[in-house]
Amino acid sequence: MDYTHPSACLDLLQRLHPIDVKATHQTLVQIVHGLLEGRPAPNQHLEVLEAARDTLSFAQGEMARRYAAHPLPPDSEENATLGRVIALWQDMARSYARIADADATEGTLDDQRALLMQRRILYEGLALIEYFRAHRALEPGMWRTLHRSYASALEQGLARIRVSEPLNETWRAQSPHEAYVAILLVDLANPYGRSERELSWIVRWAQRFAPYCAVDAELESSKSTTYGVDFELDQGLRPLGLLARTPSLMRFDGSALATQIQAVMAQFKRGVKPASLGLGEDCSTGDAGRLLLSLYRPWGLAAAGRRFPRRSKAGEVELTGDWLGMGFAIQGELFQQPRTTSPHRPRADDIALLTFRERASLVPDPQRELQRRKEQAEMLGLECERWGLLDQSVGGFRLQRRSVASRLEHHQLIAIRPPDGEQFLLGDLSWLMYRAEGMLEIGVNVLPGIPRVLAIRQTSNGGREPYHQAFLLPASPALKSAPSLVLPAQWFRRGRILELRQDGVARKVELSKLLLRGANFDQCSFDEVEPIPA
C-alpha cells in the first residue's frame, strides 16, 4: 500500500473498521506519516486529513484508555502507546502547517487559511493534553511551539475567524483563538490533580467556555495576580507579577467567563441538567457543580496566591497509603475489634504502680518508640515508604521518589510524618506527575489536626455490625477548622447515625456535612447525639 497517494488513502479510510482499534490506529499513523513524506497537492492533502478526523479522534481516545486511569511511569509497558498517541497528534499539527506553507505561493486554499491554523493549534494542544492525561511532565519546547503558532495566527489576522469544527460538541465551530484559549484553560485547571473522568470533562468544558476569554496586550491597568502568557517562554499562564514586561507578553482575561460560570451554577440550582447547558450527558448535576466551582477562581478570576508560603527544605518523610498502615503509623498498633466490656488494666500499668499509693509516670522515649513501631511494621508488612522532600508549607508538602511500591491515586488519603516531626499527619494526595527520568513528584495537602484512630460502625443493624477503622481530626482554632471524621470511602450520608468507640468509651454521632471526598475516604463534620452506657 502506497500511503503517499491521496486517492489511495481516501479509499482506505472508507474500508477501516474502528472496532479493531489497534489496526485502525496503525493505519491512520501510516496515512498521516505517508502524506507528510509524499507532499501531495495541498488541497488533496487537506481532503484526506479532514476525512480522517472523526475516525482518528475515536482511535486516539480508545488508545489513551490504556494508560489514562492512573499516572503512567516512564518504564510502563504502555509508555510506547503514549508515545504513538502523542506522535500522531503532532504529525496532524505538522500536516496542517505543511499544507499552509505549501499553499502560500499557490493561493488555492486562501479561504481555508483560518481552518488550517485552527487545526494546527488544536492538535498541538491535544499533544500537551495527552501528557496531562498520563500525568507526565511536558517535553521541552511544547508550550513555545503552541505560543508561536498562535502568535502567527495573530500576525496573519486569522485568530478570531471561526471555522467549522465538528469535534467541538457545543459550538460545532471554533477559531484559532478559541482553540488556543481552551488549552490555556485546561492547564489552569490543575490537570495533574484530576482523575481521568474529571480531565475529560475539563477538556470538553474548556472548549465550551473558551469564547468568553480574551488574550490581549492590555497590561497597564492589570493587577499582579492577573494571568499572563509570554509567547517566548516555554510555559503556560502565570501571574503577571511573576513575568517580565516584554514585547511578547500578553494578558489573559477570564472575567466574562466568571459571569458565565455564575449563570451555569444558578441554572443548576433551578434544576437544569448539565446536558442542557452544553456540559455533557455523562455528568450529574452534583459532580458538575463541584468541579465547576473548583474552576471558578482559576478560570474566571485571577491567581489566588498561596495561603501559606512554600519554603525549600531537604530531608525525607515517611508515607503510607495503606488504610490499616495509616492507623498503625498513627497509633502504634494494628486496628482490632474493640471489646464492648471494660478492659483489664494493661500489665505495663500495673508495673507503673509505685509505693505510697501513688503512680509514677513512665518517661516515654520517642526514638525507642519509633524503632519499636518500625520493627513491628516490617513484621506486619505495613512499613512506610521514604520520600524525598522538595519543599513544604504549613498546608502541605511536595515530595519525590524514584521507585514507588504502592499504586497511588488522586485524592487518596495518606499518612505522612515530616522529617522534624514525631507524629503522623493525614494528607490528601492533590496531584501526581512523572518526570521523564522516572521520578514521581506528588503534592500532599495536609488535613489540619493531629489524627486519632477510632472504631466506627453503623447503627442500622441493631449494633451487630463489625467496627471499622476511622480517624478523628480535632478542632484547629489556628486554622479555623472544626472537628471532623475521616471515614472509609462512600460512608458519608447526611443524617446517618454512627457509633464511635474510642479509649473504651462509646457514643453516637450524626453526620452533617461532607467536607472532602477522596478516592478512599470521606471527610465530614458531625454532631454529637448521645453517649452510650458502658
Detailed description of the structure:
By secondary structure, the protein is of the alpha+beta class. The protein has three domains: 1-210, no CATH class; 311-446, Beta Barrel (Thrombin, subunit H), CATH 2.40.10; 452-532. It contains 13 helices and 19 strands. The protein has helices spanning 6-14, 21-38, 42-64, 79-102, 113-134, 142-155, 176-188, 196-209, 255-269, 285-300, 323-331, 347-351, 366-380, and strands spanning 163-164, 173-174, 214-216, 227-230, 238-239, 249-253, 311-312, 316-320, 385-393, 396-401, 413-417, 425-434, 440-446, 452-458, 468-473, 484-488, 497-502, 505-517, 521-532. The strands form four sheets. It has a six-stranded antiparallel beta barrel with strand order 8-9-10-13-12-11. The chain has a six-stranded antiparallel barrel with strand order 14-15-16-19-18-17. A four-stranded antiparallel sheet has the order 3-6-4-5, with no helix packed on it.
